[in-house]
Amino acid sequence: MELLPGRTYAPTLYPLGDRIETWAAEVLRLVKGDRLIVVGCSVGGSCALEVAAAVPDRVAALVLIGTKAQHRPDAALHASVLDTLEGQGLEEAWRLFWAPLLSDTVSIHAIREARRIALSQSPHEVARGVSVFHSRPSRDQVLSTFPGPVIVVTGEDDNLPGLKKSAAQADSARNGSLYVVPGCGHYVPLERPEIFNSIMRDVIADHRS
Predict the structure, then answer these.
(1) Which three-class secondary structure string do you get for 129-153?
(2) Where is 65: in which H helix or E strand?
(3) Which helix (H) or strand (E) segment is 36 a member of?
(4) Torsion sign, CA atoms 24, 113, 81, 169
(5) Three-state secondary-structure class, residue 6
(6) Percent of the chain having pLDDT more than 90?
(7) What global pTM score does this model have?
(8) Which pLDDT belongs to residue 209?
(9) Burial of 46 (0-12, 13-18, 19+ CB in 10 A)
(10) Which of 38, 62, 86, 34 is nearest to 145 (CA)?
(11) What is the pLDDT of residue 33?
């Protein structure tokens, strides 16, 4: 937000509806301009892909962090997360499903901040986000047809989707590039913000020129 002050939008997605398509439509209601750099981490990356699918002519570049474009439904995992949220609460769901996605080498500050952000959410809205994530369509064809740059960012220690899958996604894009962030897990902007901001400075500079 500090790289493009006054021209950056960072909406909270979970309250925006029960489908990823609705999230994308609601996000597009908020933003102005026809040269959008659309950035998303994890399920936010799924929403970014949906924006690119909906209005490819308005998207100048896609930045996807820890994002898997292809979706194969996992009904058992979906049910397990929802059951944990309902029966044991948000903190236990965080401990079981999301905290392990952080790198073992990440700073204690990043761990505390990740936990603070997670536990500040409404359990109901987190459950909605989980269901949106697990019901989203595959958007791997967006990677192969999108005409602009696709910047794929992955933590070195992230296994969701992992280095191999992230590299394949970058390769499948017409104009794809891959950044691997060392000593980092799934949440690159939170775990290694200085490296992520450096990547974003380059992306913004390319489009300014």
Answers:
(1) HHHHHHHCCCCHHHHHHCCCCEEEE
(2) strand 59-65
(3) strand 36-41
(4) positive
(5) coil
(6) 96
(7) 0.96
(8) 60
(9) buried
(10) 62
(11) 87
